[in-house]
Amino acid sequence: MSARGSLRALLVVALLFASPAHAADAPARDAEKSLPPAPSAVRGPLVVFAASSLHEGMTALGHRFTAATGLDVRFNFAGSQELRTQLEQGAQADLFVSADRRHAEALEQAGLVLAPTLFARNRLTIVVRRGNPEGVQTLADLAGLAHLAIGAHEVPVGAYAEQLLALADKRRPGLAAHITAKISSRELNVRQVLMKVALGEADAGIVYATDARAMATRVAEVPLPPELALRTDDLIAIASHAQNPPGASAFIAFVLSAAGQAELSALGFSGPELP
After folding, report:
1. Domain spanning 122-231, CATH architecture
2. pLDDT of 166-213, one tens digit each?
3. Rounded Cα distance, 89 and 182, in Å
4. Cβ contacts of residue 157 below 8 Å, gap of 6+?
5. Distance between CA atoms of 199 and 176, rounded to whole angstroms?
6. Which of 9, 55, 88, 269 has CB 3.0 to 4.6 Å from 69, enough for a Cys bridge?
7. What number does CATH give the domain 3-121+234-266?
């Protein structure tokens, strides 16, 4: 696809996916009449640095976006903290997708990304080995295990897990200390926590519900009660030195669209409008 053709496709996508009302007021064909000179950057791929916990969601969205625009989307998946470090050290990306606000806002303050946009929410859950051999039924049961895996302090899923334990401790003082004493590994991303449990190297782990769902053939989920339902935030931001700003803007528009949100909902994510 030519640069001008790519730009036209991106504008069409942005108009169609921004909102039904906006698309009706400004049809794509009208936008095409006033196309500016096509920037050469549109010819290149769209490079997305995305949190490991968003692997399935971003991959599915990327495939649909490519089908609609013809623009190749290339992902770099890792822990949000690792991706942040890469950007701070000069790595090039068009978009940064974080599993929490801390890393996204730190990059914004450093001038490396533009204002982040909340596009989805997740929730924490407990995962155990298939068959639940240790009989884990509640969060308190984690205090009786030999080996518990969670994310490292700097990893979003680890920070969320610590918030969860603090919340539980307010309801049952001392519980957090008992559970923390059973932590045998702190992993650098949520997938590593899942693998520890799946391989039997940990009796249980604290992960995102969507990741537990994605690995349902290897682990079992033990849901947390409503009073401990800790919602998590997923944010997306355009990199300040993006090579393809039009493509990045169009991708965000698609993620926030009804079609994009439906794709995420099918994978277990909640919409950004939830408190």
Report:
1. 3-Layer(aba) Sandwich (3.40)
2. 999 999 999 999 999 999 999 999 999 999 999 999 999 999 999 999
3. 35
4. 53, 99, 124, 150, 151, 189, 190, 193, 206, 207, 208
5. 25
6. 9
7. 3.40.190.10
